[in-house]
Amino acid sequence: MVCKWDLLFCCCLLGLAGGTAFKSTWELPTTEQMHNSLQSCQLEAAGGDSADMLRCLVEQLGLWTDEQGYNAKRIAKIFAAQRQMEELMVVIEYCNDRERREEQPAQWALEAYKCATSGRFGRWVKDYVKQQQKFK
Q1: Residue 92 — left, alpha, or beta (φ > 0 → left; ψ -120 to 50 → alpha)?
Q2: In the chain, which ranges are continuous DSSP H helix?
Q3: Torsion of CA 2, 116, 70, 37, to 10 degrees
């Protein structure tokens, strides 16, 4: 099970991504938009189910569809400063494929997230969260 801190890492990471579904003109959301999406998803997953909350959030932010899983290009763009976009896209696509559960999309989203953030990408997420906490 993913703890609340993992979800906070994910939320901060995903807070950089915006839009709904996979629009062709994808823009970064404002802090307010990210906060509203997070609150909405927390209410929607009132039972505390991490998988449902994560799926809701990444879907609202335009980083997930139940048909394709995570959008590796969009997530890689968030971390363009790391200059390893292609490597990150490979990791995300691998985790999407490895954890694919079309009958259980929320569980797929959660397991693919855990898979992708188990290595270097996870450290980038944690570093990003630390940076964002300094600006609060």
Answers
A1: alpha
A2: 4-14, 31-44, 50-60, 72-78, 85-98, 105-116, 120-134
A3: 40
Question: Rounded to an integer, what distance in angstroms lies between the CA atom of residue 49 and that of residue 43?
Answer: 11
Q: Check: CB of residue 52 under 8 Å from CB of residue 45.
A: yes
**How far does the chain reach from its first CA to its final CA, in angstroms?**
28
Q: What is the mean pLDDT of residues 11-34?
A: 58
Half-sphere exposure of residue 20: CA atoms within 13 angstroms, side-chain side: 4
User: How confident is the prediction for the chain on average, in pLDDT?
Assistant: 78
C-alpha distances in Å from residue 7, one per residue of 15, 83, 110: 12, 25, 10
pLDDT tens digits, 30-79: 677 778 888 899 888 777 788 999 999 889 888 899 999 999 998 887 77
Cβ of 96: how many Cβ atoms within 10 Å? 21
Query: Is residue 76 a contact partner of residue 32, using CB atoms and an 8 Å limit?
Result: no
pTM to 2 decimal places: 0.74
